[in-house]
Amino acid sequence: METVFQAQISYNQFLSAAGTPLQALPEWAGKPDILVRYYRNMVQLRQLDNKIIALQRTGQMGTYASLLGAEAIEVVLGELMLSDDVLVPYYRNHGLQMLRGLPLADMLSYWGGDERGSASATMAQDFPNAVPIATQALHAAGVATAIKIRGEKRAVVTVCGDGATSKGDFLEALNVAGAWQLPVVFVVNNNQWAISVPRSLQSAAATLAQKAIGAGIRGEQVDGNDVIALHESVTEALKHAREGKGPTLIEAISYRLSDHTTADDATRYRSNEELKAAWEREPIKRLQTFLHTQGWWDEVQETAWQKEVAQIIQQGLDSFLQRPPQPVEDLIDYLYAELPDALKEQREQLIRNAQPGGNHHE
Amino acid sequence: MSDAITMVEAINLALHSEMQRDDSVIVLGEDVGVNGGVFRATVGLRETFGIKRVLDTPLAETMIAGLSVGMAAQGLKPVAEIQFMGFIFPTMEQIICHAARLRHRTRGRLHCPMVLRVPFGGGIHAPEHHSESTEALFAHIPGLRVVIPSSPKRAYGLLLAAIRNPDPVIFMEPKRIYRLNAQTVEDNGEALPLDSCYTLREGADITLVSWGAMIKETLEAADLLAQQGVSCEVIDVVTLNPIDHETILASVAKTGRCVIIHEAPKSCAVGAEISATLGERGLLSLQAPVARVTGYDTIMPYYRMENHYLPNTADIVEAVTATLEFS
């Protein structure tokens, strides 16, 4: 018997969980600018996340998917994607969406049950959040197909969770991206849990990155709590995509420090010990330690930034709360480019019912 | 004027015609390129428009639909072929959750100008899973358009309209009549409306409503009935979402009687929707209950028994006779 194929998966990590370098750092990490920006952005996302959960608990926000533990992935993709790249997100990418220009009030609109949150012109060609699992991976491949047909130098990034890698859509997307060498980067936020199902029950594969091998594309694992490692992996993957060298699958190892959503209770299925251990690896503390060691960040800056972030969030929240309700006819008017005659009567009924005295007046 | 061509040739002509006119039209699917499609609907496109506009895809229907959504959101106009209706079901999540919904959920920021072409229906002695008529599944989905041609001329004009339409269209091709009749089809680039029935024959005594391949049996029944002195009005519904109820209501207001004919199973089918609308809005003009001549509420059989399943001309004549005799 001869070996006809062999492959290996590498794991990329620069900063230890304690915030100390494990190997020589890349040149860009020898300066504070990008790393401090990563830190500030992560702090902002975490404070925002806490705020939204508090709003949900008091009935001012709908069911919300927390970003707790995904901050590093969000800020690195937000930094490295260009404005004319296309993001095809899942429902845990709102940090990234804001870094790409989505106003906080729009983001809050989405999670507050209002489709106008996906209508913001700032989203340009980016897709709205995919709620059905893994379906977005195929849209990303389709966007990348259009880019390739047109011969443009743009990249597409799509993100999904570890559970999504079990779905056909994900594998079909990897497959066609490989067959056609599409300019797309698949990022798996492997946060170890798909609601209550642990990573070990999703797949017998030792890594999720190795699913790339079956599709004949680049695949690697990276510490998803380490912004430096993420920066390196994503930079390389985007470069490949833009240069027409094909797709990459990045498995970012993180941990879902939150419940799946505000409608979930993770204490039903996972241990406190596991959660406690995961907090030791989380992305913000380790970068903070590193920045302190370098002398690039201190307590005074921390206090000032936390205060500023609170103001930014309050402004966004005020703007969200002042937003007028959407016209009820939006429910029908955006279904087709041109409203079919058959729907006109239902549209009138809808409007009539919403008016004062109508059955559905609020 | 060209020579007479069949429906599948008219579909091919429409694809050539629109791809010539519009660079953003991309044809994709299984075997659509080198092989020209298993029914030859896409033959010659790859040679004319090249591999960047005619994509032989990997064998994955969900992928074909999902890829089309992504391409459409970028402003391309993908025209994807799903080889047979029986293989369309993996695409349902992509169609319902994304294609039909993208415009609505982004309030028009993105939209999805894609066409899924799919041959459907029985009567060609095909393998299992190749003969279903599940148009009702799609007609039920808000945001989709569902179109079924029944002649070469209309297949040409309706496919042009489907490709030009800025919203997703399921274009169902009744494969039993792909090569049944030939018509002269002028390649004039003129699209037909996507919200209109066609009155194929005017009549005074009863309205026959059908679509797709059953139009053949419906017209045959109308001929037989004419010999008995019964004047049938025959309506081809053509667009199953949205349905042009006005044309049907106006016809029944004139005739007072209606028989609906379709190949799909009876329950919860498009015929039920038409019948319900006649009850809601045409009750006072009805002189008899609306009758339905349909497939049975069972699995579309493998070909040995498909003739038992498919409605035929005698079934239609019988239903018309009973409806006319009702008092």
TrEMBL record, chain A:
What are its cofactors? Answer: thiamine diphosphate
Q: What is its EC number?
A: 1.2.4.1
Q: Where is the Dehydrogenase E1 component domain?
A: 40-318
Reactions catalysed, as given in the entry: N(6)-[(R)-lipoyl]-L-lysyl-[protein] + pyruvate + H(+) = N(6)-[(R)-S(8)-acetyldihydrolipoyl]-L-lysyl-[protein] + CO2
Q: Which Pfam families match?
A: E1_dh
Q: Which domain of life is it from?
A: Bacteria
Q: Which UniProt keywords apply?
A: Oxidoreductase, Pyruvate, Thiamine pyrophosphate
Answer whether the UniProt record assigns the keyword Oxidoreductase to this protein.
yes
InterPro entries from the xrefs? Alpha-ketoacid_DH_E1_comp (IPR050771), DH_E1 (IPR001017), PdhA/BkdA (IPR017596), THDP-binding (IPR029061)
What subunit structure does UniProt give? Heterodimer of an alpha and a beta chain.
Q: What does this protein do?
A: The pyruvate dehydrogenase complex catalyzes the overall conversion of pyruvate to acetyl-CoA and CO(2). It contains multiple copies of three enzymatic components: pyruvate dehydrogenase (E1), dihydrolipoamide acetyltransferase (E2) and lipoamide dehydrogenase (E3).
Entries under NCBIfam families matching the protein: PDH_E1_alph_x (TIGR03181)
- Listed name of the protein: Pyruvate dehydrogenase E1 component subunit alpha
Protein species of origin? Amphritea pacifica
UniProtKB/TrEMBL annotation, chain B:
Describe the location of the Transketolase-like pyrimidine-binding domain by residue ranges.
5-180
* Pfam families linked: Transket_pyr (PF02779), Transketolase_C (PF02780)
InterPro entries assigned: THDP-binding, Transketo_C/PFOR_II, Transketolase-like_Pyr-bd, Transketolase_C
Spell out the SMART domains in the cross-references. Answer: Transket_pyr
Keyword Oxidoreductase present in the record's keywords: the answer is yes
Q: Which SUPFAM superfamilies match?
A: Thiamin diphosphate-binding fold (THDP-binding), TK C-terminal domain-like
Q: Which organism is this entry from? A: Amphritea pacifica
What cofactors are annotated for this protein?
thiamine diphosphate
Keyword annotations from UniProtKB, A to Z: Oxidoreductase, Thiamine pyrophosphate
Q: Does the keyword Nucleotidyltransferase apply?
A: no
Its protein name is Alpha-ketoacid dehydrogenase subunit beta
